[in-house]
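Tokens in:
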């Protein structure tokens, strides 16, 4: 046997499951393979049970659509990873599932909210609002009684005292004090009728009194008790838990009628649910009033119509939309002009200290943006900023950068161009390396100058591959929330507007303001504006793809 044959035999013998391996008794992986096959289906069964339990938990919590979505996602995963037919999709499934969960679902949910009146005043469903209103009540103060809870082993007894004398008046049977979702009616009895009689050996014939800490621990169970005194049969006279020291009867504020209306017990006024406003609206003498809180309803295109038809909202909205476009466009134009000019200058081989200049000009891009923004906020301070100090020394003026709308917008453009030009400079520097030097040599022979070279050779060859990246920069600045939030916070504000709006707000900061700040958290309107922003950015992305396709063709 030669060396090649010997080495081949040795390799074959080392392979698990081969005849030579069986002959030589070498099967180190065979046991692991058998163990993996043995545990495969039990592991699948455990994962399936966990998935079904999650789906069941979502369904029992009332989240039917979430349960169906989770069931579909888990079902698709099992079908792909447990069948041969899904072999080709096993590497695609995680990415597709992530896209559905983190991109498609938030987008669809935001769009759906845009067709509702969802806001801080309309957070709950109609059923939950009805339950909340029916739970509102006042205590009948004249009949409130102090109570105590006594423990004798695992049994508890609740004692009611006379409001006038403080003497023990009623005693409950033995209670377990377990938490429950349903109220428990307890028939009270006088101590004389109880089988547990006072004992002269102890001060407390019903066991040890619970401390305040123990009462707090059993508060949830005590809140479910409804105490019925001897001779009382009217449910409205039952004593309810009113706190850590008191039980007493309650007087509900509202009563539900068979037709779904709510009657206010104080004056008999009727309130009916109104699907157009999301409130229980008053009738008769209570007309023009509604009960708070409201509930979430579908309002169709109402939020989108407000952007066009509501004059008080349309004015600031159109101004903010126009400023957003102008802000993004001017930022890209100025950043491109400065970045391209610096890239061309740094491409000049006879320029001394090119590396030093390139490093210094790159620094605004290397420093985190939010730090630069906060530094500029201090530099532009009207009273203590260095910029105003220089302007005051040279020209005797101290501009109100944050109070004047035009100056505030100018300041935003200055800071944003400062942050953005290094990006364009780096792109142009790379693109300049791809321009053949023969073109410049031929231009020099023809007697052309630097400006002619730039406008006839450099700019036309750079702008075509640069165009898709500039569209991306425009889309980024269209949603540049951090700059607005940290530098001006949208101020100064428009005067006399229905919804507070800032003159330096762009659409994304205006949306944030509507959703979470000044205007009462109108999530529905904010979602509608967010959907509009998505449509605009998506249109720019499609334009970007077209430009990239043309650039590559």
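Residues out:
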């Amino acid at each position: 046997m030669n060396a090649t044959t010997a080495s081949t035999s040795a390799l074959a013998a080392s392979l698990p499951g081969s005849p030579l391996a069986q002959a030589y008794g070498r099967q180190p992986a065979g046991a692991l393979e058998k163990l993996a096959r043995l545990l495969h289906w039990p592991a699948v069964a455990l994962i399936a049970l966990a998935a079904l339990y999650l789906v069941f938990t979502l369904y029992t919590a009332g989240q039917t659509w979430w349960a169906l979505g989770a069931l579909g996602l888990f079902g698709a995963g099992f079908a792909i990873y447990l069948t041969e037919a899904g072999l080709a999709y096993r590497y695609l499934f995680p990415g597709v599932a992530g896209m559905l969960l983190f991109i498609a679902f938030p987008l669809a949910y935001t769009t759906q909210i845009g067709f509702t009146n969802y806001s801080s005043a309309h957070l709950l469903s109609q059923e939950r609002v009805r339950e909340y209103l029916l739970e509102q009540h006042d205590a009948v103060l004249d009949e409130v009684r102090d109570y105590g809870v006594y423990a004798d082993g695992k049994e508890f007894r609740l004692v009611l005292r006379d409001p006038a004398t403080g003497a023990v008046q009623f005693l409950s049977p033995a209670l377990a004090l377990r938490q429950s979702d349903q109220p428990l009616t307890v028939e009270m009895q006088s101590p004389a009728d109880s089988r547990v009689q006072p004992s002269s050996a102890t001060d407390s014939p019903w066991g040890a009194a619970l401390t305040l800490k123990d009462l707090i621990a059993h508060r949830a169970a005590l809140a479910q008790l409804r105490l019925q005194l001897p001779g009382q049969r009217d449910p409205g006279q039952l004593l309810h838990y009113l706190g850590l020291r008191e039980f007493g009867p309650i007087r509900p504020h509202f009563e539900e009628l068979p037709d779904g209306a709510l009657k206010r017990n104080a004056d008999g006024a009727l309130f009916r649910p109104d699907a157009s406003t999301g409130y229980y609206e008053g009738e008769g003498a209570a007309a023009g009033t509604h009960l708070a809180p409201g509930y979430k309803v579908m309002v169709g295109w109402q939020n989108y119509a407000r952007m066009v038809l509501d004059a008080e909202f349309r004015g600031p909205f159109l101004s903010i939309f126009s400023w957003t476009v102008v802000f993004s466009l001017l930022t890209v134009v100025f950043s491109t002009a400065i970045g391209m000019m610096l890239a061309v200058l740094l491409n000049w081989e006879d320029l001394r200290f090119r590396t030093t200049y390139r490093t210094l000009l790159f620094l605004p891009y290397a420093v985190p943006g939010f730090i630069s923004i906060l530094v500029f906020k201090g530099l532009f301070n009207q009273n203590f900023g260095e910029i105003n100090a220089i302007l005051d020394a040279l020209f005797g003026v101290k501009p109100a950068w944050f109070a004047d709308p035009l100056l505030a917008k100018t300041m935003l453009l200055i800071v944003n161009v400062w942050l953005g030009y290094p990006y364009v400079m780096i792109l142009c520097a790379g693109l300049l390396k791809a321009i053949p030097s023969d073109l410049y040599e031929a231009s020099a022979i023809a007697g052309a100058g630097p400006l002619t070279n730039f406008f006839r050779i450099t700019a036309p060859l750079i702008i075509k591959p640069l165009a898709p990246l500039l569209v991306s920069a425009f889309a980024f600045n269209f949603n540049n929330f951090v700059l607005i939030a940290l530098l001006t916070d949208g101020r100064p504000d428009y005067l006399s507007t229905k919804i507070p709006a800032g003159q330096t707000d762009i659409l994304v900061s205006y949306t944030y303001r509507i959703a979470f700040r000044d205007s009462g958290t109108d999530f529905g309107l904010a979602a509608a504006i967010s959907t509009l922003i998505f449509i605009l950015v998506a249109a720019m992305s499609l334009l970007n793809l077209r430009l990239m396709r043309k650039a590559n063709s």
